[in-house]
Amino acid sequence: MRRIIERQKERYGWEFLFLGANIDAAAEARRFGIDESMAANYHCDEVGTALNYEVINEAITSVRACAAPLSADRITRREAERDDWSDLR
């Protein structure tokens, strides 16, 4: 898998995001040849999954409009915000 990902990145300029639930997403991303800055952990539940779709939609829309590079930062921030809100309950 690592070779395939590296080939796609080199030959076609593809970028990859690695989303992981209940694992060390950064470590697993590195294992596949994906930079850990492109990895994000999320809660594997209804809210976390919906949040991923929302944030991925926004990220891809920004990349297509050349407004921002692809990044896992927004997913990481939204998950952190969710954790902050859950602490208040």
Instruction: Please report the number of helical segments.
Output: 4
What proportion of the residues form beta strands (DSSP E)? 5-15%
What is the count of β-strands? Answer: 2
Q: Ranges with pLDDT <50 over ≥5 residues?
A: none
Main β-sheet description: 2 strands, parallel
| Chain-averaged pLDDT | 84
Report how far the terminal alpha carbons are from each other. Answer: 42 Å
Radius of gyration: 14 Å
Strand arrangement, largest sheet? Answer: 1-2
Structural class: mainly alpha
What's the SSE pattern? HEHEHH
- Silhouette: globular
Secondary structure: helix percent: 55-70%
Q: What does this entry look like structurally?
A:
By secondary structure, the protein is mainly α. A two-stranded parallel sheet has the order 1-2. It is globular and about 40 Å long. The chain is built from 4 helices and 2 strands; from the N terminus they run H-E-H-E-H-H. The longest helix is centred in the middle third of the chain and has 19 residues, at 46-64. Strand 1 (18-20), helix 2 and strand 2 form a beta-alpha-beta unit. The mean pLDDT is 84. Helix 3 (46-64) packs antiparallel against helix 4 (73-87).
